[in-house]
Structure formats: structure tokens, C-alpha cells
Amino acid sequence: MADLQLQILKEVDASGSIENTLQVPVFAKIDAAQIYAALNSLQAKQMITYSKIETDKWVLTPEAESFLVGGSPEYRVMEAVLKSVEGLTISDLKSQLGAIGAVGQGKAFKNQWLGKDGEKLVSKVDQLPEDVVVAQLKEIKETGKLSDKKELTELKKRKLVQQVKIVGYKVIKGEQFALEIKSYETDITADMISSGSWKTADFKPLNFKSEGIYPESGALHPLNKVREEFRQIFFSMGFTEMPSNQYVETGFWNFDTLFVPQQHPARDLQDTFYLKDPVKAGKPEDEEYWNNIKQVHQEGKYGSIGYRYPWKEAESLRMVLRTHTTAISSAMLHDLAKNPRPIRLFSIDRVFRNEAVDATHLAEFHQVEGVIAGYDITLGDLIGFMEDFFAKMGVNGLRFKAAYNPYTEPSLEIFAYHKGLKKWVEIGNSGMFRPEMLESMGLPKNMRVLGWGLSLERPTMIKYGVSNIRELLGHKVSLDFIETNPAARLDEDLV
Amino acid sequence: MPTIGVDKADLFELLGKEYTTEEFDELCFDFGIELDEDTTEECQGDERPQLKIEIPANRYDMLCIEGIAQALNEFLGNTKPPVYTLKPSTPEVTLTIKESTAQVRPYAAGAILRNVKFDQRRYDSFIALQDKLHSNLCRNRTLVAVGTHDLDTLTPPFTYEALKPTDIKFAPLNQSKVMDASEMMEFYEHDKHLGRYLHIIKDLPVYPVILDSKRTVGSMPPIINSDHSKITLNTRNVFIDVTGTDKTKTEIVVNQIVAMFSRYCETPFEIEPVKVISEHNEETRVVPNIEPRVAPAEISYINSCLGLEYSGEEIADLLKKMSLSAEPSTSEKDILNVKIPITRPDILHQCDIMEDAAIGYGYNNLKKTKPKGDSLVAAPLPINKVADILRYASAQSGYLEVLPLTLCSHDENFKFLRVEDDGTTAVKLENPKTIEYQVVRTSLLPGILKTIKENRKHSLPIKVFEAGDIVLKDPKLERGAFNQRNWCAIYTGKNSGFEYVQGLLGKIMQTLRTPWLENPESDTRRGYWIEEDEKNTTYFPGRGGSVIFRVQEGEEGKRIGSIGTLHPEVMSSFEIPYAASAVEINAEVFL
């Protein structure tokens, strides 16, 4: 192997370059694969560079090879005819020469070398003619080609020659050309650095056209990464995170305090998870509040005529899994009534709905909720704030539509234009909490509270093209998805 | 939100304009309803194109084409609100409520529409409105039910009574056979449409019925009317009976029906009242009560909420678009007296009036401002901060964060973990749709193990963690239960890898300034150690321990969680063909 490499280097050195390895007799004899390996190795060391040359070549078939020894069939027929004293019949020829006798006799007739006298074959030439076919075959064997194209076609017809592709290489000197082959280092080692051997060592080039070896790494969950983006938006706008870590709620806090009447469809078994253990809640400590809620539903209070139905304590004390984080907002606003002041609150946490599970619905998902309390807040403030908030997620140009929600009035659905879907899509809900809710808590009449909410999953699915919520939340999420998921940047335009 | 299908050509004719889909969509958006679908493209043959319109859940006056057109026409300024009148002003027809109904369905109201002209589409709309009311406001007929009759087939006065099922005999609507009410319950048991209402009265000792003076049955609410009194296209005089368990909603329903369909009377919007005689509960009165309710609204409040400085008259102009007529009070300067028509029972408070003024003005025309309070200081929830420290440290240690659901089956939370349910820990659901949602988890293990099961083709080892809430019962609390933030990690592979989770715990504890104490008895610093726990059956015997944490120098250590090699039966229960070790601790102790 090393000998071959050296031979190549010597040849290049002697001739300046090799135009085609096939033309160098010593290389032409060597198996092409070996040449290829030797050239690659030399090229890796930048001693040479090579390029491949493909050429067509004619070679002799085994039949033609046999002619080179004894002559072509027509030649042998003439040899036999001229040699015989009494002349030969066709069957004599067959017994003397076997199968080639028939082939040779036909060709000899065609060449007008042979004639017939009755049964006897007679020569039309005086002496043995030149064996042209063998001469042609010899030329092909030596040069791989034949100048006379017509004759070549004839030989091909006679299945004496066939065409093959052969590969040779053009070799020229490389940057590191030398007649001596050095060994190359693959890496810089600590030993080299301490011994200083790196100064004289030659290094194999690095492979930049590969991804390399990935680090073994952990990862945060994609949905939690988006959650963190939302948290940072809230923090940047002065919002304090609510203690939303309370999944179990009572009918009172989840519905009644929010002025959701006890017959409201949201309170159906079809929509809300009720608990059988524990089955009944305790009454809230603030009895005045409890009574206010009862009155505002049943008879009306604070300028409201109420829903005018018999409000049932038992319904209020039923246990539920919270259907929205607004149950927490309600408790926080009730606390605020002890010391009313402007405040901004948010939470991003789980909520539970007794819904049939499909590609866009799970029994659990995350709700993003924001609350702003302040004196004399206007509806224009709500709209202006929403534009700022959504602009931070890269969503601009909002439109607001009137909607209905039992605990906010006015209620505004927030729409944004989706360039991909080419339509306005609803991205969240907002509104001003109803006075029935706030004044029952004891908040002053001119303290108004804005609230808005959206799910965490929906914008994440739209932004990152996830079509099934179960691929984003729950135990069916793929670990590969978690591992390879890029950073979440809500303000980044995805192309 | 109810979706109402209306005839497209009829609606545009009522609105006096051929809208393009885009134009109509815009109109809906501005008003606060939503065009869901325009079926023009899908119509075949002589099918008439429909518009499917989503209506806010509290606009009972917009559950039919008549109401939608009326509201939109007023919004567009095309028409004034109808003025409803009662004729004769003193009712001639009475409906007497017997005390026997008190125990089953105590309230009833009624009304009569004289000289009505139906055609097929009006008739269909009349029936559809009753269906929409039944499924929305009436909560599937539990709260209120409506019956409509050809008055000319009955002989007033009417009574509303509750009778034994076997004493009620009539041929129900579209049937020729007379049956008693018990037979009817069987007859309709598997009926697609009516079957779902039977439960409302089925097991009661008596069923409510509307009877005429000849004891002819008009209807048996909330199930069915009699065939005898059914209305047809030729019916001219309609008697409407409304019964319910909720008085307010009973009144709202009768009002909506007469408000919508009195327009087809010979004198439009003229309604014949009925006197309800209900001595036993002092509910004797004339129905329907069509007088608008006058609600005072503060001009300053509306202006303040909308950021406007409008006069009372200017606000009244906005309200006109929303079917509300208003005029400034002559006695109180800041008060606008707003007349709430019977079509707007959704208005409860002046905030509802303020909203209508806002819609009249146009939400998207409001001046955009910023709420004060930009200087407020933000703060994270402390437990979320602790959890983030745990999460970042776990991810930095090469573990993947997973996010399973908090609801799981009872078996997953107990039996699969080889834990007995002593009834003191887990919150249990009353009405889950699948067994996947029977309990709220009391450990993070089931969710993580389920995640590993789903990812068992992933290259080994699988190293995952979660920082999430579990829920535990506490009968002393108002809400009966509380959340606890836990942190849990599992190593799964060809080997159980106990040392790896042990090391991960060490790394986490190091992050939380809590060193491992080799001799916790002599070394009294803050720190943690592990003690073997034979009682923890989730782990293999001899391979499970408790994590003990001493918060401060000199204090007693307290158990904050567990660590160990999961029992092989746990692995088979979760169908994971590997060995695993787990660690789970309560994160709240680091607050």
C-alpha cells in the first residue's frame, strides 16, 4: 500500500503529473480499487489532488482470445485446405477442425478465398492469406480500440469484442507534495502541548461538513417555555403573580362570587367536574360577603335587579375542580377590598373542564389571566392596554367585538388577523368585572377592574404549528419533541 | 352560545339591503354577534341559503329571525322599537293555578295572540323559537316549558293542575291513540327528541297538566302537548302556556314569544293578556307584563367608563341603537331614565346600559388610553420561584421536563404504586367522563411513569422530571383540599440507576444550599440525609428510603419525600419493560 503511494509520488515527481494512470503501464496493471485507496490517502494529506477519468474501452471476448493462439477460423480453414493434397470435402473439414470449421469455411467463402469443385473445396488463393482478424484483435487488445469503425462493428457482431468503461485518474501535485509520506496527527493532545511536539506535528484536516457530537442534555418542557415568555411579559408590565395553586374550589368561589347564576349551563355536570370526596365545602369566613352574594343573586343589590331566583346554599357549597383561574382572581379581589388600591395581578395555571377530549380539547389546560384594578379605569384603557400586551407577543392590529360573559360587562372578544389563515381569529377574552361582583366584596364603587384571559396552549399551537393538543400537554408528549424544541420567543416572527 | 339558522333572503329583505357576506360579517362584528356560516355555496336544487348566526347567550330576543332583524334594524337606525299593547286591557281568559302544582312545577303564565297569519316559514320559525328557548334559557325544559295551542279547539277558562299519571288521558301531539301519562312515559322512553325530558317528572307522584273548562288536556308540561289542540298553518288564535320552576324565567319566556310573534297579528304587536289566578301562593296577576322597566343610569358613570363627555341626550342616541329609549331625568341632573323593553331582560344593572352605549359608540372607535399604574412593582409567586430553581437545576443535570395531567385513574394513583387508599389523601371526582379522570394525583409518579410508558422506544436511559402540584385533602379548610408543589425525577434503563437519582437529589439539594449530612446525629447543621423506609411499598424491599431535611441548625429533621428503586410490580403495572429509580420531594419546604 505504502509502496504504491510512493510509486505514485515518484511517477508524479518524474513526469510532473500523471495524465491518466491507465496510460502508465505499471499502474494500469493494478486493481483500480487499490489505486483509488492510495490516491485518497495521499489527497487527505494534501500531497496530491486527483480527478477521475472515465474512458470506454473495447476488450476481447474469451472466444477472440483463443483466436490469438491458433488464428481465426477462416485462417485455419485455409491452412487446412492448402495443406491437403487430395482436397477436402466439407465433412472432412468438420472432422479436422470441429465447430470452427463451419464458421471458418463460411468466412473464407465470403472473403473469396475458397471455391468449390464438385464435392471438393478448392483454394482461390495461391498462398495462405494474411490473418486480418487476428491482427485487428491484437490491435484492440493492445490499445482498447480499432481505427476502422466498420471492421469494429463486424467484430462486435461476431461477438469477438465488447465495450467496457474503465476508470483512470489524473494526478497532479498537491500543496504538501513530497516524496516522503509523513504520518498525520488527528487531534491536538495535552501531551503534545506539554512536550511541544505540536510544533512539528502535521495534522489531519477537520471535517467541518458534519454536525459533530451533540451534548447529552436535559430540557425544559416547550409549553413551560412559552409560559415563561408570558410571565416575563407580565413582569415587565408590573404584574404580581397570584397564588393560583388551588385546584379545588367551591361553587361559591368558582361561580357565585363571579355572579354566575346557579342554573348557568357552565355549572352543568356536562361541563364542570364536581367532587364526591370531599363533597361539601365550608362556608367562607366573611359572612357579610356570603350574604351579599346571596342577595345580589336572589334579590339584587348595588343597583342591580339580580337574577331573581332562589339562591341555594347547598349549590354554593358544592366542591368543584376550578373551571377557570378567575376563582383565584375573585379571592384576590376580595382580599383587596380590605385595603383597596390600584393593583396588577396575573396567573398562568391549570383549569379543568369536563369536556370530551379531541385534537383541541383536553380535560385540563392552562389559562393565562391578567387583572388590573384601579380607580375610574375606562374601556379605552382596556383596549389600549391589550394592544400593548399583545404587541409584546408580536401580535398587532387588534379588533374588539362585543360578547357576553356572566361576570364581565362590557365583555370584549379580542381578534387578531392571522396572515397564515387569512382571517381574523379570536385570541382572547376581556372585560370589566361586573359591579355586582366587585361591590359585594366591599370594593369602592369607582374602583374598576379589568380582566382578560386566554389559553396557553392555543397560541402555542398556532405559533409552533402543533395540530394536536395531546402532543403538547399530557403523558403522550414525545420526549424527542421536548429534547429538540428550540427556545420560545413570542416576539419572534416565524417564517 | 346558541347558533341560529335564518333564511338569508328573508333576513336581507327584512333589513332592506342585499349584503355581501363580508358586509354582513362586519355588521355582525360591530353589533356583537357572529356570522358562523353562509350556506349559499352548499345549497342544492331549490334549497334556500341560510345564515348561521351565533347569538350571545343572554340575548333571548335574538333566537329567531324576527328578533335578529328587529335588533339589527334598530341598530342600523332603520326602525323604531315596537310598541306592544294589551287588548282587551282587562283579561277575559283566566288560568287558574291549583295548589297541587306547588310540589312539581309551581309557576305558570300564558298569553293569547289573536288573528295570527302563519305561513310555512313563520310557522317553522315559531316552532324553532320554542326549541331554542327550551334548550337555552329553559335549561332543557327543567326550568321552563312552553306549550302552544289552537285556542279555537279549547274552551277557556283554563286550569293548571297536577294529577296522578293514570288520571291524565289524551292523545299526544301527532298521535291518534289516547293513552294515560304512565303509558306515555313508556311510549316515549326511547324517543330521540322527547326521551331526554321524561326524567323531569317521571318519578313524581303527580304530573302537571293544562286543562280547559271541559277538562280537555292542552298539554302535559314539560313533555308534550295534546294532538287535539295542536296549531297548524290555518290556526288564527294561539294560546300560549308557559310553566316552570323558576318564576323569573317563566315571565321572560312568555314575553319573548309574544314580543316576537305578535307582529303577525292582525294588529301587529297587540297581545291578549291572561289573568293568572294563583291564590295559594299569592301569585295572582295579569300576564304578560309588557310595561318597559325604567332603570336609572348615571350619566357620569357611563361617561367615565367610556372616556367620553357626552350629554344625556347624546348617550340616549347611542342607546337607541340597542333598543333602549332613554331620557334625562327632570329631577336628578346626573340621571338618565332608561326604558328597558320586554325584549331586553339581560339588562340587570347600569353596567349593562353602559355596555350598550359602548356598542352604540363602537368599541373600535373608543379612544385608546393606558391605565395608570405603570410604576407598579412586579413579583413572582414564591413557590413558582422555588420550583423554577428545581426545574433549571434538573434540566442542567440532563433531565427532561415532562408535563402530564394532574387527573388520573384511581388505580394509577394507588394500586399501580402498591399503595392502599386510606381515604384521607386523594380528592375524588363525581362525574368524570372516563376512568382516566377519577382522582387528582397525590404523587407526581403516575403521570411521569405514564409519560415513560408512551416513550418507551426512546433511547435509554430515560431521565425525566416534573415540578408540579399534587392535591391533598384537608377537612379543616374551607375548600377541603390544598395544592402542594412537588418535585419528582425518574431514571429508567437497563439498570435501576439508583445512584443517579441519589446524585441528582444531591445536586438539587446543593442548589438549595442544603448539604448531605453523613452523620446527622452528631452533625446538627442544616442539611439532608436518607433513611431506609421499609413501609414504602412503592419501592423494592430494602431499596426505598425517606428523604429527611433539617431546615436550620439544631432543629429536628423532617421527612420531605422518598427515594428508591421502584418495585418491579410498579413497572409492570405501568407497562414499562425496564428498571427505574425515583425521587420525589415536597418543594414547599424550601419557601
TrEMBL record, chain A:
* SUPFAM superfamilies, per the entry: Class II aaRS and biotin synthetases
Pfam families, per the entry? PheRS_DBD3, tRNA-synt_2d
Superkingdom of source? Eukaryota
Membrane spanning stretches: none
Q: What class of enzyme is it?
A: ligase
Q: Name one GO biological process term.
A: phenylalanyl-tRNA aminoacylation
Q: Where is it localised?
A: Cytoplasm
Task: Report the main location listed first in the record.
Answer: cytoplasm
Q: What is its EC number?
A: 6.1.1.20
The cross-references to CDD domains, in alphabetical order and at most eight, read: PheRS_alpha_core
NCBIfam families, sorted: pheS, PRK04172.1
* Assembly, per entry: Tetramer of two alpha and two beta subunits.
- Give the family per the record: Belongs to the class-II aminoacyl-tRNA synthetase family. Phe-tRNA synthetase alpha subunit type 2 subfamily.
Question: Which named protein is this?
Answer: Phenylalanine--tRNA ligase alpha subunit
TrEMBL record, chain B:
- What GO molecular function terms would the record report? ATP binding; magnesium ion binding; phenylalanine-tRNA ligase activity; RNA binding
Assigned EC number: 6.1.1.20
UniProt GO BP = phenylalanyl-tRNA aminoacylation
For this protein, the record's Gene3D superfamilies field holds: 3.30.56.10, Bira Bifunctional Protein, Domain 2 (3.30.930.10), Phenylalanyl-trna Synthetase, Chain B, domain 3 (3.50.40.10)
Q: Which PROSITE patterns match?
A: B5
Domain of life of the native organism: Eukaryota
| The protein's name in its UniProt record | Phenylalanine--tRNA ligase beta subunit
Origin organism of this chain? Scheffersomyces spartinae
